[in-house]
Amino acid sequence: MKELELKYGCNPNQKPSRIYMADGSELPMEVLNGRPGYINLLDALNGWQLVKELKAAAGVPAATSFKHVSPAGAAIGLPLSEIDRKICRVPEDAEMTPLSSAYARARGADRMSSFGDFISLSDICDKATALQIQHEVSDGIIAPGYEPEALEILKSKKKGNYAVLQIDPEYVPEPVERKQVFGVTFEQGRNEFRIDRELLKNVVTEKKEIPEAAKTDLMISLITLKYTQSNSVCYVKNGQTIGVGAGQQSRIHCTRLAGDKADRWYLRQVPQVLELPFKEGVGKPERDNAIDLYLGEEQEELLKDGIWQGFFERKPDAFTAEERRKWLDGNTGVSLGSDAFFPFGDNIERAARSGVEYVAEPGGSVRDDLVIASCDRLGIAMCFTGMRLFHH
């Protein structure tokens, strides 16, 4: 297939629309089912690059959940704990493989943002992963291959219209990439910068020790940022992103946005949240939305008479600010990556409130000394990578 005609571009009025190879060669992917859209394909190709790099760096299967050209979540295939299963909506009796665990964790990082996602998998999609995807609201998937039974499961989604793409894992793009904006062609070398443990050697804080697990998490954060619309900041714990902040003009706003998402991820593990008395028949998206309201400033609106009855068997107890802060104080060992330097120490202050103990950022600010001082005061280990990771 050398060309794929699309229904329209970013919006229905943007026609005609297609993808093709400028040199006339075959496209590096094949549509096995459905009809992917313009934004679907942007998500697919960015997501595939992300999971391919995560797999190469961590040595285990990886998955990402993409929305609007940025990852809502990304993870590697580490085993799920009992709590992980609950917050990721994985049935107790579900068979799990490294790949299905990676996807469950990627989707579970930020379920609100992952609604209607495009999935990318580093490995051949197996039945266990397809069964995880089967009951989620998703637009499509890209992977290097599919087990026959997995493919049939995926083809049945969306009344047979679920987009299933197969990418050539050996495909290597040209070293120079181009795009047009307002009729002007932009050209640059592809960002082939490799992210590995060597990048984390320049620890500039008093605290020098970074455990191997935290180094893996820092690599996950940096690789995720490489494919996230800038400015961007990413919080990671135990092999999965727990808060991705994308496309903010101010870095502190980005740090706050990602930190708030990380806080909600951790707060979903509170026993009274896990045990919310949802009524039978309330679907996953509605539950996710209700939990998000319950954990935020809109809690009073959710618990109003006439509202809570639509979700719960009985009215839940209010979740107080004091209870929230006490639980969040138990979150530790979080890693944080930033795609460019932190210009002020306020970013470190905010990150510490979400359990951050390890930071990777390029360095190079005129206020690096103040940022380092903030880390030293809070007991955080920070390394300078010397490499910016902007993506647009």
Q: CATH top level of the largest domain?
A: Alpha Beta
Q: Termini, distance in Å?
A: 28 Å
Give the spatial strand order of the biggest sheet.
3-8-7-6-4-5
Stretches with pLDDT under 50, minimum 5 residues? none
Q: What is the number of strand segments?
A: 15
CATH architecture of the largest domain: 3-Layer(aba) Sandwich
Give the SSE string. EEEHEEHHHEHEHEEEHEEHHHHHEHEHE
Rg of Cα set: 21 Å
Count of the separate structural domains: 3
- Mind telling me the CATH superfamily name of the largest domain? AICAR transformylase, duplication domain
Helicity level? 25-40%
Give a quick set of tags describing it.
single chain, 392 residues, alpha/beta, Cytidine Deaminase, domain 2, 6-stranded mixed β-sheet, 5-stranded mixed β-sheet, 15 strands, 35% helix, globular
Explain what the structure shows.
The structure is a single chain. The chain is of the alpha/beta class and about 400 residues long. It has 3 domains: about 170 residues, AICAR transformylase, duplication domain (Cytidine Deaminase, domain 2, 3-Layer(aba) Sandwich); about 130 residues, AICAR transformylase, duplication domain (Cytidine Deaminase, domain 2); about 40 residues, no CATH class. It is built from 14 helices and 15 strands. The longest helix has 21 residues. The radius of gyration is 21 Å and the shape is globular.
